[in-house]
Design brief:
By secondary structure, the chain is of the alpha+beta class. It contains four helices and nine strands.
Length: about 180
């Protein structure tokens, strides 16, 4: 038993120092730092225009009139199927439309996206992001206008994290809010 006591003390000390052992105060302090946890797994495959579901090109045209489709991807995430349709507006600027395919096959445009310079985001969006404890200057910013609500989600990519946004800020009705969870689309 005498040997077991020092071993138990050592195990408790190691466990208390491990990353998974947070106190309630520590968890509360880091919960609102603005940085998102890794997102759900997404299976991505390229699709040709011939492989696009019927009606997708017409939906893209209705969503962004005059858009020329350059390429598309099919994405599966959390049981949902999306088509990311990339192309150009009539003025030549890049645009992407994210289209959700329902279980019944119905297609719904959910987002219209474009890359922007961080300086082009509304001042309130930049201020909300900068106010977070783990703020960073994004190396990429995607502006995602939500088709259904009119809100805009700013997806901020931290240096070295090019695969998914590290922070998202919702801009709606003149108010900016750093999201605590990843936006659904």
């Amino acid at each position: 038993m005498r040997r077991a006591v020092p071993a138990l003390i050592l195990a408790a000390a190691i466990g208390a120092c491990s990353p998974g052992a947070e106190t309630a105060d520590n968890a509360a302090a880091t919960a609102d730092n603005g940085v998102l946890a890794a997102g759900p797994e997404t299976v991505i495959s390229n699709v040709t225009q011939a492989e696009l579901p019927a009606g997708l090109a017409a939906l893209a045209e209705a969503t962004v009139p005059g858009m020329t489709i350059a390429e598309a991807e099919r994405k599966e995430r959390e049981g949902r199927i999306y088509y990311d349709v990339e192309g150009a507006r009539p003025d030549g600027s890049d645009v992407e439309i994210d289209v959700l395919q329902g279980p019944d096959g119905k297609l719904t445009a959910v987002e219209v996206q474009r890359d922007i310079d961080w300086a082009a985001a509304p001042a309130q969006v930049r201020a909300a992001a900068a106010a977070k404890k783990d703020a960073f200057v994004p190396e990429r910013v995607i502006e995602s206008r939500q088709v259904d609500s009119g809100a805009t989600i700013y997806e901020l990519f931290a240096p070295g994290r090019k695969d998914e946004p590290a922070m998202e800020v919702r801009w709606q009705n003149g108010k900016a809010e750093v999201l605590g969870e990843r936006w659904a689309h």
